[in-house]
Amino acid sequence: MRAPELSKEPAPQAGSGAARPAGIAAVPRERLGQARVLIVGDVMLDRYWFGDVNRISPEAPVPVVHVQRQEDRLGGAANVARNAAALGANAGLLCVVGGDEPGERIVELLKDSGVATHLERDPELSTTIKLRVLSRQQQLLRVDFENTPAHEALLAGLARFDALLASHDVILMSDYAKGGLTHVTQMIAKARAAGKSVLVDPKGDDWERYRGATLITPNRAELREVVGQWKSEADLHARVDALRASLEIDALLLTRSEEGMTLFTADGEALTAPADAREVYDVSGAGDTVIATLAVMLAAKLPLVDAVALANRAAGIVVGKLGTATVDYDELFAPNAR
Protein backbone atom coordinates (compact mmCIF):
# COMPACT_ATOMS: atom_id res chain seq x y z
CA MET A 1 0.00 0.00 0.00
CA ARG A 2 1.35 3.39 -0.89
CA ALA A 3 1.65 6.34 1.44
CA PRO A 4 -1.16 8.90 1.59
CA GLU A 5 -1.02 11.93 -0.63
CA LEU A 6 -0.12 15.30 0.83
CA SER A 7 -2.86 17.85 0.26
CA LYS A 8 -2.73 21.64 0.29
CA GLU A 9 -5.96 22.02 2.21
CA PRO A 10 -5.51 24.55 5.03
CA ALA A 11 -6.88 22.41 7.85
CA PRO A 12 -6.53 18.66 8.43
CA GLN A 13 -9.57 16.48 8.91
CA ALA A 14 -9.02 13.98 11.69
CA GLY A 15 -9.45 10.40 10.58
CA SER A 16 -10.00 11.28 6.93
CA GLY A 17 -8.67 9.10 4.16
CA ALA A 18 -6.59 10.17 1.21
CA ALA A 19 -5.99 9.15 -2.35
CA ARG A 20 -2.80 7.21 -3.01
CA PRO A 21 -0.12 9.33 -4.64
CA ALA A 22 0.64 8.93 -8.30
CA GLY A 23 4.41 9.28 -7.95
CA ILE A 24 5.53 7.20 -4.94
CA ALA A 25 6.32 3.66 -5.96
CA ALA A 26 8.13 1.22 -3.69
CA VAL A 27 11.75 2.26 -3.32
CA PRO A 28 14.07 -0.63 -4.28
CA ARG A 29 15.77 -2.32 -1.34
CA GLU A 30 19.14 -1.71 -2.95
CA ARG A 31 18.53 2.03 -2.97
CA LEU A 32 17.69 2.10 0.73
CA GLY A 33 20.71 -0.13 1.37
CA GLN A 34 22.93 2.65 0.05
CA ALA A 35 21.41 5.29 2.37
CA ARG A 36 23.78 6.28 5.19
CA VAL A 37 22.24 7.92 8.26
CA LEU A 38 24.11 8.99 11.38
CA ILE A 39 21.90 9.29 14.47
CA VAL A 40 23.23 11.35 17.37
CA GLY A 41 21.49 11.75 20.71
CA ASP A 42 20.21 10.35 23.97
CA VAL A 43 19.85 6.59 24.26
CA MET A 44 17.86 4.69 26.83
CA LEU A 45 16.69 1.22 27.66
CA ASP A 46 12.95 0.62 27.63
CA ARG A 47 12.40 -2.22 30.09
CA TYR A 48 9.00 -3.90 30.36
CA TRP A 49 7.80 -6.14 33.19
CA PHE A 50 4.67 -8.12 32.37
CA GLY A 51 2.57 -9.88 34.98
CA ASP A 52 -0.83 -10.63 36.45
CA VAL A 53 -2.75 -8.66 39.08
CA ASN A 54 -4.92 -10.78 41.34
CA ARG A 55 -4.95 -8.82 44.58
CA ILE A 56 -4.45 -5.46 46.27
CA SER A 57 -1.44 -4.96 48.53
CA PRO A 58 -2.20 -5.07 52.30
CA GLU A 59 0.47 -2.37 52.75
CA ALA A 60 -1.19 0.28 50.54
CA PRO A 61 -4.16 0.50 48.13
CA VAL A 62 -2.09 -0.52 45.11
CA PRO A 63 -2.21 -3.61 42.89
CA VAL A 64 0.32 -6.41 43.43
CA VAL A 65 1.87 -7.46 40.11
CA HIS A 66 3.23 -10.98 39.87
CA VAL A 67 5.92 -10.42 37.23
CA GLN A 68 6.19 -13.35 34.85
CA ARG A 69 8.10 -11.95 31.88
CA GLN A 70 10.64 -9.23 31.18
CA GLU A 71 11.42 -7.59 27.84
CA ASP A 72 14.06 -5.01 26.94
CA ARG A 73 13.84 -2.67 23.95
CA LEU A 74 15.94 0.15 22.61
CA GLY A 75 14.63 3.62 23.42
CA GLY A 76 15.38 7.21 22.48
CA ALA A 77 18.03 7.70 19.81
CA ALA A 78 18.72 3.95 19.90
CA ASN A 79 15.13 3.28 18.83
CA VAL A 80 15.51 5.83 16.03
CA ALA A 81 18.62 3.98 14.81
CA ARG A 82 16.81 0.65 15.06
CA ASN A 83 13.99 2.04 12.91
CA ALA A 84 16.43 3.25 10.27
CA ALA A 85 18.17 -0.13 10.19
CA ALA A 86 14.83 -1.97 9.96
CA LEU A 87 14.16 -0.18 6.66
CA GLY A 88 17.46 -1.48 5.31
CA ALA A 89 19.57 1.66 5.63
CA ASN A 90 23.13 1.87 6.94
CA ALA A 91 22.40 3.32 10.37
CA GLY A 92 25.17 4.58 12.63
CA LEU A 93 24.58 5.70 16.21
CA LEU A 94 26.77 8.14 18.15
CA CYS A 95 25.92 8.31 21.86
CA VAL A 96 27.14 8.01 25.44
CA VAL A 97 26.33 5.02 27.65
CA GLY A 98 27.35 4.06 31.16
CA GLY A 99 29.54 1.16 32.18
CA ASP A 100 26.58 -0.61 33.78
CA GLU A 101 24.25 -3.50 32.98
CA PRO A 102 21.68 -1.36 31.10
CA GLY A 103 24.49 0.10 28.99
CA GLU A 104 25.73 -3.37 28.09
CA ARG A 105 22.18 -4.43 27.28
CA ILE A 106 21.83 -1.46 24.89
CA VAL A 107 25.06 -2.47 23.15
CA GLU A 108 23.78 -6.03 22.80
CA LEU A 109 20.41 -4.95 21.38
CA LEU A 110 22.05 -2.53 18.94
CA LYS A 111 24.25 -5.32 17.63
CA ASP A 112 21.20 -7.54 17.13
CA SER A 113 19.46 -4.69 15.27
CA GLY A 114 22.25 -4.21 12.75
CA VAL A 115 23.14 -0.69 13.92
CA ALA A 116 26.76 0.46 13.64
CA THR A 117 27.62 1.74 17.12
CA HIS A 118 29.97 4.62 17.88
CA LEU A 119 29.79 4.72 21.67
CA GLU A 120 31.49 6.82 24.26
CA ARG A 121 31.66 5.19 27.69
CA ASP A 122 31.14 7.20 30.86
CA PRO A 123 31.88 5.01 33.90
CA GLU A 124 30.06 7.45 36.19
CA LEU A 125 26.89 7.57 34.08
CA SER A 126 23.78 5.62 35.04
CA THR A 127 22.39 4.59 31.67
CA THR A 128 18.83 5.87 31.31
CA ILE A 129 16.15 3.26 31.98
CA LYS A 130 12.40 3.63 31.57
CA LEU A 131 10.87 0.72 33.46
CA ARG A 132 7.23 0.01 32.67
CA VAL A 133 5.08 -2.44 34.63
CA LEU A 134 2.16 -3.87 32.66
CA SER A 135 -0.72 -6.24 33.31
CA ARG A 136 -2.99 -7.51 30.54
CA GLN A 137 -1.28 -5.10 28.13
CA GLN A 138 -2.17 -2.09 30.30
CA GLN A 139 0.59 0.06 31.78
CA LEU A 140 0.29 0.38 35.55
CA LEU A 141 3.47 2.26 36.40
CA ARG A 142 6.61 3.78 34.86
CA VAL A 143 9.83 4.30 36.82
CA ASP A 144 12.72 6.34 35.34
CA PHE A 145 16.43 6.09 36.21
CA GLU A 146 18.75 8.71 34.70
CA ASN A 147 21.51 11.29 35.06
CA THR A 148 23.65 13.29 32.62
CA PRO A 149 26.95 12.35 30.89
CA ALA A 150 30.27 13.81 31.97
CA HIS A 151 31.78 16.72 30.02
CA GLU A 152 34.78 14.63 28.93
CA ALA A 153 32.58 11.95 27.32
CA LEU A 154 30.60 14.60 25.44
CA LEU A 155 33.76 16.25 24.10
CA ALA A 156 35.02 12.86 22.95
CA GLY A 157 31.69 12.37 21.16
CA LEU A 158 32.07 15.71 19.41
CA ALA A 159 35.51 14.70 18.13
CA ARG A 160 34.14 11.40 16.89
CA PHE A 161 31.28 13.26 15.16
CA ASP A 162 33.87 15.15 13.10
CA ALA A 163 35.42 11.86 12.00
CA LEU A 164 32.07 10.28 11.07
CA LEU A 165 30.56 13.22 9.21
CA ALA A 166 32.03 12.57 5.75
CA SER A 167 30.85 8.95 5.62
CA HIS A 168 27.12 9.71 6.13
CA ASP A 169 24.48 11.31 3.90
CA VAL A 170 22.00 12.58 6.51
CA ILE A 171 22.55 13.55 10.14
CA LEU A 172 19.70 12.99 12.61
CA MET A 173 19.67 14.62 16.05
CA SER A 174 17.41 12.80 18.53
CA ASP A 175 17.05 15.02 21.60
CA TYR A 176 15.49 13.60 24.77
CA ALA A 177 16.98 16.26 27.07
CA LYS A 178 19.29 13.78 28.81
CA GLY A 179 22.47 15.73 28.04
CA GLY A 180 23.74 13.74 25.06
CA LEU A 181 23.24 16.69 22.68
CA THR A 182 25.02 19.35 24.71
CA HIS A 183 27.05 20.28 21.60
CA VAL A 184 24.18 20.06 19.12
CA THR A 185 24.62 23.63 17.81
CA GLN A 186 28.23 22.96 16.84
CA MET A 187 27.30 19.63 15.28
CA ILE A 188 24.58 21.21 13.13
CA ALA A 189 26.93 23.94 11.95
CA LYS A 190 29.64 21.41 11.06
CA ALA A 191 27.18 19.17 9.21
CA ARG A 192 25.63 21.99 7.18
CA ALA A 193 29.09 23.32 6.29
CA ALA A 194 29.85 19.83 4.97
CA GLY A 195 26.70 19.92 2.82
CA LYS A 196 24.75 17.39 4.89
CA SER A 197 21.03 17.52 5.63
CA VAL A 198 20.32 17.72 9.38
CA LEU A 199 17.04 16.50 10.90
CA VAL A 200 16.16 17.33 14.51
CA ASP A 201 13.61 15.77 16.86
CA PRO A 202 13.46 18.63 19.41
CA LYS A 203 12.97 18.85 23.15
CA GLY A 204 12.29 21.79 25.46
CA ASP A 205 11.70 25.44 24.65
CA ASP A 206 15.24 26.50 23.63
CA TRP A 207 15.27 25.94 19.90
CA GLU A 208 18.04 28.47 19.32
CA ARG A 209 20.37 25.50 19.84
CA TYR A 210 18.93 23.92 16.66
CA ARG A 211 19.69 26.96 14.50
CA GLY A 212 20.48 26.11 10.89
CA ALA A 213 18.90 22.63 10.85
CA THR A 214 17.38 21.40 7.60
CA LEU A 215 14.19 20.00 9.13
CA ILE A 216 12.73 19.93 12.65
CA THR A 217 9.91 17.56 13.68
CA PRO A 218 7.99 18.73 16.78
CA ASN A 219 4.65 17.40 17.94
CA ARG A 220 1.85 19.80 18.90
CA ALA A 221 2.82 20.10 22.57
CA GLU A 222 6.47 20.72 21.73
CA LEU A 223 5.61 23.41 19.19
CA ARG A 224 3.16 25.13 21.57
CA GLU A 225 5.91 25.34 24.16
CA VAL A 226 7.92 27.49 21.74
CA VAL A 227 5.39 29.54 19.73
CA GLY A 228 2.39 29.58 22.09
CA GLN A 229 -1.19 28.51 21.45
CA TRP A 230 -2.42 29.24 17.93
CA LYS A 231 -5.99 30.32 17.24
CA SER A 232 -6.39 29.04 13.69
CA GLU A 233 -4.52 27.30 10.90
CA ALA A 234 -3.57 30.69 9.48
CA ASP A 235 -2.22 31.77 12.86
CA LEU A 236 -0.29 28.50 13.15
CA HIS A 237 1.18 29.02 9.68
CA ALA A 238 2.28 32.57 10.52
CA ARG A 239 3.88 31.51 13.82
CA VAL A 240 5.74 28.60 12.21
CA ASP A 241 6.99 30.76 9.32
CA ALA A 242 8.30 33.37 11.75
CA LEU A 243 10.01 30.73 13.90
CA ARG A 244 11.51 28.93 10.93
CA ALA A 245 12.86 32.13 9.41
CA SER A 246 14.31 33.39 12.72
CA LEU A 247 16.20 30.12 13.29
CA GLU A 248 17.19 29.64 9.63
CA ILE A 249 15.49 26.24 9.51
CA ASP A 250 14.49 25.10 6.02
CA ALA A 251 11.34 23.15 6.94
CA LEU A 252 9.21 22.11 9.90
CA LEU A 253 7.13 18.93 10.06
CA LEU A 254 4.41 19.16 12.71
CA THR A 255 3.11 15.77 13.84
CA ARG A 256 -0.52 16.09 14.95
CA SER A 257 -1.54 12.68 16.24
CA GLU A 258 -5.04 11.85 14.95
CA GLU A 259 -4.85 14.85 12.60
CA GLY A 260 -1.85 13.49 10.72
CA MET A 261 1.07 15.80 10.00
CA THR A 262 1.72 19.12 8.29
CA LEU A 263 4.89 20.15 6.45
CA PHE A 264 5.80 23.85 6.46
CA THR A 265 8.49 24.83 3.95
CA ALA A 266 10.40 27.91 2.86
CA ASP A 267 8.15 28.40 -0.20
CA GLY A 268 5.29 29.33 2.15
CA GLU A 269 3.14 26.26 1.56
CA ALA A 270 1.67 24.02 4.26
CA LEU A 271 1.15 20.45 3.04
CA THR A 272 -1.03 18.15 5.16
CA ALA A 273 -1.05 14.35 5.28
CA PRO A 274 -4.15 12.98 7.07
CA ALA A 275 -3.53 10.32 9.72
CA ASP A 276 -3.08 6.85 8.24
CA ALA A 277 -3.54 4.67 11.34
CA ARG A 278 -5.73 1.55 11.05
CA GLU A 279 -5.93 1.02 14.81
CA VAL A 280 -4.13 3.02 17.48
CA TYR A 281 -2.75 0.71 20.15
CA ASP A 282 0.31 2.54 21.52
CA VAL A 283 1.87 5.83 20.39
CA SER A 284 5.19 5.19 22.21
CA GLY A 285 8.07 5.83 19.85
CA ALA A 286 5.93 6.92 16.91
CA GLY A 287 7.97 10.12 16.59
CA ASP A 288 11.12 8.00 16.40
CA THR A 289 9.66 6.06 13.49
CA VAL A 290 8.61 9.24 11.68
CA ILE A 291 12.00 10.95 11.79
CA ALA A 292 13.92 7.73 11.08
CA THR A 293 11.81 7.10 7.97
CA LEU A 294 12.29 10.69 6.85
CA ALA A 295 16.05 10.45 7.26
CA VAL A 296 16.32 7.16 5.38
CA MET A 297 14.20 8.39 2.47
CA LEU A 298 16.10 11.67 2.20
CA ALA A 299 19.40 9.78 2.31
CA ALA A 300 18.01 7.64 -0.53
CA LYS A 301 17.47 10.91 -2.48
CA LEU A 302 13.66 10.97 -2.39
CA PRO A 303 11.97 14.39 -2.54
CA LEU A 304 10.97 15.76 0.86
CA VAL A 305 7.24 15.58 0.12
CA ASP A 306 7.52 11.88 -0.78
CA ALA A 307 9.62 11.21 2.32
CA VAL A 308 6.95 12.83 4.51
CA ALA A 309 4.20 10.75 2.91
CA LEU A 310 6.12 7.55 3.63
CA ALA A 311 6.89 8.68 7.19
CA ASN A 312 3.17 9.24 7.72
CA ARG A 313 2.47 5.75 6.43
CA ALA A 314 5.12 4.31 8.80
CA ALA A 315 3.57 6.14 11.76
CA GLY A 316 0.18 4.65 10.94
CA ILE A 317 1.69 1.18 11.13
CA VAL A 318 3.81 1.55 14.26
CA VAL A 319 1.02 2.93 16.50
CA GLY A 320 -0.73 -0.42 16.06
CA LYS A 321 2.11 -2.13 17.97
CA LEU A 322 2.91 -2.30 21.70
CA GLY A 323 5.67 -0.05 22.99
CA THR A 324 8.63 1.20 21.00
CA ALA A 325 8.60 -0.74 17.74
CA THR A 326 9.79 -0.59 14.15
CA VAL A 327 8.37 -0.75 10.64
CA ASP A 328 10.28 -2.90 8.19
CA TYR A 329 10.57 -2.64 4.42
CA ASP A 330 7.82 -5.15 3.60
CA GLU A 331 5.33 -3.47 5.95
CA LEU A 332 6.01 -0.02 4.55
CA PHE A 333 5.72 -0.96 0.89
CA ALA A 334 3.31 -3.92 0.93
CA PRO A 335 1.95 -5.06 -1.47
CA ASN A 336 4.48 -3.24 -3.65
CA ALA A 337 7.62 -4.54 -1.97
CA ARG A 338 10.32 -5.62 -4.40
Indicate the CATH topology: UDP-N-acetylmuramoyl-L-alanine:D-glutamate ligase
pLDDT under 50 segments (min length 5)?
Answer: 1-23
CATH hierarchy: architecture: 3-Layer(aba) Sandwich
What is the spatial order of strands in the main beta sheet? 5-4-1-8-9-10-11-12-13
Overall morphology: globular
Q: Please give the number of β-strands.
A: 13
Estimated helix fraction: 25-40%
- Helix and strand sequence: HEEEHEHEEEHEHEEHHEEEHHH
| Global Rg | 20 Å
Q: Can you identify the CATH class?
A: Alpha Beta
Mean of pLDDT: 88
Organism: Trinickia dinghuensis
InterPro entries: PfkB_dom, RfaE_dom_I, Ribokinase-like
Keywords: Kinase, Transferase
Region (Disordered): 1-22
Explain briefly what this protein structure is.
The chain has helices spanning 29-33, 77-86, 101-113, 151-164, 184-193, 220-227, 233-247, 286-299, 304-318, 329-333; strands at residues 36-41, 43-56, 63-76, 90-98, 116-122, 129-135, 138-145, 170-174, 197-201, 215-216, 251-255, 261-265, 270-273. The protein has 338 residues and is of the alpha/beta class.
